[in-house]
Design goal:
The complex is a heterodimer of chains A (255) and B (610). By secondary structure, chain A is mainly alpha-helical. Chain A is 52% helix and 3% strand. In chain A, β1 (119-122) and β2 (125-128) form a beta hairpin. The relative contact order of chain A is 0.09. Chain B has 19 helices and six strands.
């Protein structure tokens, strides 16, 4: 059997990986792979594949042989001219497709967790967010029964105020969620409240969208300023509920 | 030959003069600063100083910041400081591994090591003069453009700044004795004296860096001052602030990796310019050693980085989130990409180097598997927490959260990935080292089996720690799990290296090792490593400094200059990139100068015959 030239082996492997990503994510898993990420992935996959194909002299020569043959052999003039004509057109077409303005809104770099201020004024008092802890958390060990009661109270607050956007399963799939961009936070995701201290949640819930810092404006969160509608204790209770229901633990520095 | 020697002498005299002028420049400027920080000399409006010698930060307005020649003060200080840091990192790192190589040469009595160590230190000598010039320029820039801040800092750190200036003299003297005395202090006790001077040089260099680190970490995590920034008078408390040791550790390791990469680029430059096979062989060996040093320091570097970041987070939730979750998160993605480039380029260089011997061909078939793991781990390593989604993708996903890629965006996945990258890079090194050898000891199979078992068990352990403890327990364990992961990696590397030493003791060579038989593209990989390191240091240096946001000294001394805002990421990346280009241009100048100094033009009829 005739061996496939190394150059075509390499191109074949790269294309195979590319389409495998699309088939796996877009069709089998039903979760599209973002094109920006796929481009980053492919850049380094190509680097890795080229590295494997060129680390020995023999392999490099074999890889380049068809190209050298095409460029240097006078008999390959037609093929050479065709390739040298088509290649720039393909590159140009790709660049054009990337640069041409479209009606789609531009993508935004959005940080899920903006950095909190070191201190914040809430409920008429100033809180130091570096040292602030949930005053109700102590009951988890000291008085488990009371703790369960506080969690239940937090659940009531959540259902009355939050579930319409954040969902009754706390997965960010509330009734209003489909009309919001960015969509409400999915608390069950390991990358959201599990990464944060309770003082952070207290700040975000209390100040809502308007309380977001300027560091990565424009902010487009539609979260209400909950300190205008809830008491301080209710916010701490709902925080207890968020962690209790999802099974996550708040970020702490000691057990 | 004689005229060449005289020319060399002249160059050395010139070096001495340059050094003296630079030292005096730096010393003078630091003395001026120290004097100005004295209450007697200080203008009242600069720093509020009371009769009881209390130093507190003033409240400034934009008008308090001098404007000189229309310069943008922040960008000027930023670029000069960064250039100074790059050169300083290089000249502090080179003596560390020169000392080690010299000691190896003494241990093995192999002259080759001694010659190479000398060549390494020779490269750093010109860089040393440039470091001093940039240090002097930085001091003047800071003093002229930010007088109030410098007044405050030098009031707190006056003793350490004065000691720093004195130590700079000690550094210069020890470095020059070490370099110029190299051929004089040879053999017997003289060689021991020379090695001791090397140790002294490194001790002084490390102390210099630790002192400067204290000043910059004080600006991030001030200590020894109250909530209003009033200095208590305890200088040690100000030096020994929360982030001092994490920065000391991280910078020491990073400097070695950076220094190794720059020497590697020098060797690559010389290799590509070499006209004889002998020269090629020499610079190939030099490049290999430099890359080995860079990789050795690169392996523990991510761990030092985690330690530093965890401490930053522990010191301030705000700083921690700003760095990796907030506004600087995208710079960390670039950082991840550059670290991946480093790993791929360093591995590629090793794989290309296996062509030096026919004996290595039997291992070529394994390289593709190593590459697959390294690239796969790398993809996980740089998958961002926040994905950039088009509106169509956003709609298709039903929100900005990706069910399968989302969990790869947080630290447990990245910890696991980086440990795998490190382990498989270690396998590359192991394969390279055993490529040309055939063991002669008995029970080789047992040794190999133990190594395979060690790697397999270790990788399983890293996966369990990364998945179970990373995703299914609380954050205390998530952070803590990274420590046993690191230990697992280090233990595997340590034990397998020991086993290799035993197995390959007195091993036979399969075929002659042809130094110089390496493709040019491997040399470009060495350049890539150096450029990636430089860029990385610049970007991460900006992040570290930018974490203070609108504060000169976090929470106690506000920056009220017109530039007291966090620039856009694109702007910051552009400034750093311009710095990288300037640094590389200066570096090429240094490489070129080292070529020129060894060239001689024979002229006829120019000089009078006497």
């Amino acid at each position: 059997m005739r061996k496939i030239p190394r150059l075509f082996q390499m191109i074949g492997i790269i294309l195979l990986i590319y389409f495998s990503f699309i088939v796996l994510f877009d069709y089998l898993l039903d979760q599209v792979i973002p094109s920006s990420l796929l481009r980053m992935y492919m850049f380094f996959i190509i680097a890795g594949v080229v590295a494997v194909f060129t680390f020995t002299e023999g392999s490099t020569e074999e890889l380049l042989a068809p190209i050298m043959e095409m460029m240097e052999n006078p008999e390959k003039r037609k093929v050479r001219n065709a390739v040298l004509t088509v290649m720039p057109i393909l590159v140009g077409a790709y660049l054009y497709s990337q640069m041409v303005p479209s009606v789609e809104a531009p993508v935004e770099l959005r940080s899920i967790h903006p950095a909190p201020p070191s201190s914040v004024k809430l409920f008429g008092k100033r809180y130091n967010l570096q040292t602030l802890v949930n005053p109700l958390r102590k009951y988890e060990k000291d008085d488990p029964e009371k703790f369960r009661e506080l969690v239940r109270e937090g659940a009531r607050v959540y259902i009355e105020n939050c579930h319409i956007c954040h969902g009754d399963k706390l997965d960010g799939q509330g009734l209003y969620a489909v009309r919001l961009n960015p969509t409400p936070l999915n608390f069950r995701d390991v990358g959201t409240i599990a990464q944060l201290q309770e003082s952070y949640l207290f700040w975000r819930i209390s100040t809502g969208g308007p309380g977001l810092p300027d560091e990565a404006a424009p902010w487009i969160s539609s979260m209400p300023v909950w300190q205008d509608f809830l008491t301080e204790e209710e916010i701490w209770q709902v925080i207890l509920f968020l962690y209790d229901y999802t099974g996550h633990r708040p970020r702490t520095w000691e057990e | 030959m004689q005229s060449g020697a005289k020319h060399g002498d002249k160059m050395r005299h010139l070096d001495w003069k340059c050094l003296l002028i630079n030292s005096m420049l730096l010393f003078g400027s630091l003395c001026v600063l120290t004097l100005l920080s004295d209450p007697v000399y200080a203008a009242e409006e600069l720093v509020e100083v009371t009769a009881s010698n209390v130093i507190s930060p003033p409240e400034l307005t934009a008008a308090d910041y001098p404007q000189i020649l229309g310069l943008n003060s922040r960008v000027t200080v930023w670029l000069v400081a960064q250039l100074h840091l790059w050169f300083a990192a290089f000249v502090l790192a080179v003596p560390i591994f020169v000392f080690i190589i010299e000691a190896i040469g003494m241990w093995t009595r192999n002259r080759k090591y001694d010659d190479m160590a000398y060549e390494f230190i020779k490269v750093s000598i010109t860089a040393f003069a440039i470091t001093a010039i940039l240090g002097g320029l930085l001091t003047f820039c800071l003093f002229l453009l930010y007088p109030h801040l410098m007044q405050y800092l030098s009031g707190i750190f006056r003793e350490s700044m004065f000691i720093y200036a004195l130590l700079f003299f000690a550094e210069s003297v020890t470095l020059y004795i070490y370099y110029y005395g190299w051929h004089w202090l040879q053999g017997g006790n003289k060689k021991w004296i020379h090695l001791t001077i090397g140790l002294l040089l490194n001790s002084v260099g490390a102390t210099l860096m630790f002192l400067a680190n204290a000043w910059l970490t004080f600006m991030m995590s001030p200590a020894g001052v109250d909530a209003n920034g009033v200095f208590s008078g305890d200088s040690w408390a100000a030096i020994h602030n929360f982030l001092w040791n994490p920065i000391n550790l991280h910078r020491t390791i990073a400097n070695i990796a950076f220094g190794g990469s720059i020497i590697g680029a020098y060797a690559a430059f010389k290799f590509l310019a070499a006209s004889s096979q002998e020269e090629k062989a020499h610079y190939d060996w030099m490049g290999y050693t430099a890359n080995f040093i860079a990789i050795s320091a690169l392996l523990p570097l991510p761990f030092a980085g985690y330690y530093l970041t965890a401490e930053i987070y522990a010191y301030s939730q705000q700083m921690g989130i700003t760095s990796m979750g907030g506004v600087f998160a995208w710079l960390f993605i670039i950082q991840a990409v550059l670290i991946g480039v480093l790993f791929i380029a360093a591995n590629y260089y090793l794989w290309c180097g296996m062509g030096r011997s026919e004996g290595a061909y039997r291992y070529n078939k394994y390289i593709k598997y190593i590459a697959v793991v390294i690239v796969a781990a790398f993809l996980v390593w740089f998958t961002p927490h926040t994905l950039i989604l088009t509106n169509v993708e956003l709609k298709a996903l039903g929100g900005p959260y990706h069910k399968y890629l989302g969990p790869l965006g947080i630290m447990p996945a990245k910890n696991t990935a980086v440990n795998l990258m490190i382990l498989f890079t270690a396998i590359s090194v192991l394969l390279y080292r055993r490529a040309n050898k055939i063991p002669t000891v008995s029970r080789v199979e047992i040794g190999n089996l133990v190594q395979i078992a060690l790697f397999t068990a270790g990788i399983i352990n890293i996966f369990i720690l990364g998945t179970y403890y990373g995703y299914f327990t609380n954050t205390v364990y998530k952070i803590a799990a990274s420590i046993p992961q690191v230990l697992t990696t280090l233990i595997i590397i340590g034990i397998s290296a020991l086993i290799d030493l035993v197995i390959y003791k007195g091993a036979k060579e399969v075929a002659p090792l042809h130094w110089g038989r390496i493709p040019d593209r491997a040399q470009y990989a060495l350049f890539l490593v150096a450029v990636a390191f430089t860029w990385l240091m610049g970007l991460m240096g900006y992040v570290r400094s930018g974490l203070r946001q609108h504060w000169h000294v976090t929470d106690v001394f506000r920056d009220n200059s017109v530039e007291a805002f966090t620039p856009t990421l694109g702007y910051a990346a552009s400034v750093v990139s311009v710095g990288v280009v300037i640094f590389m241009a200066m570096l090429i100048f240094i490489f070129w100068i080292s070529q020129v100094s060894s060239q001689k033009t024979v002229v006829h009829g120019y000089w009078k015959t006497t």
